[in-house]
Amino acid sequence: MNSSAALLDESLPAPCTPAATPGRPALLALDLGTRTGWALLDPRGHICSGSQPFTPQRFEGGGMRFLRFHRWLTELSQSGGASGGLAFEQVVFEEVRRHSGVDAAHAYGGFLGQLGSFCEHHRIPYQGVPVGTIKRHVTGRGNASKEAVIAAICELGYSPVDDNEADALALLHWAIATAGGAR
Description:
The protein has six helices and six strands; from the N terminus they run H-E-E-E-E-H-E-H-E-H-H-H. It is α/β, with parallel strands linked by helices. It has a six-stranded mixed β-sheet. The longest helix is centred in the middle third of the chain and has 21 residues, at 102-122. Residues 1-15 have low confidence and may be disordered.
């Protein structure tokens, strides 16, 4: 598992890309899953992103990946620097209503439960955004393929390592453009 300092060093492109007006609330966008895509808009208006694996390990119980996810969220939230504040003040996540299989549905539910618990505990507002809304924003089509989303994100100047990171970046750009869905 990467440390939070290492996570923030995985910015795309390097250094973090100025994307928004400095001073806005820090925002975390998540594509929840066994390989969770993430994108973080910091208060200076810079975006960092990556893809974090939570693959079940051999000889560990079924809930360990969710504990690792919670620990990762905690580390990421505490990477806000010397100010001691949280690294993000809002969270948006990809809201999936249909899964390819039972295992994927169970994993998503577990990650969503951990995320909700974390946000409630820290009093961080969080919001799910439908997949079609995210895809429509970044590609113009609500049923766009993974490849189309990756291509659209690459056109914005990023080099995502996988579709999970591309989805998180697309979600973050939706949240920036719509002020978190307020308009």
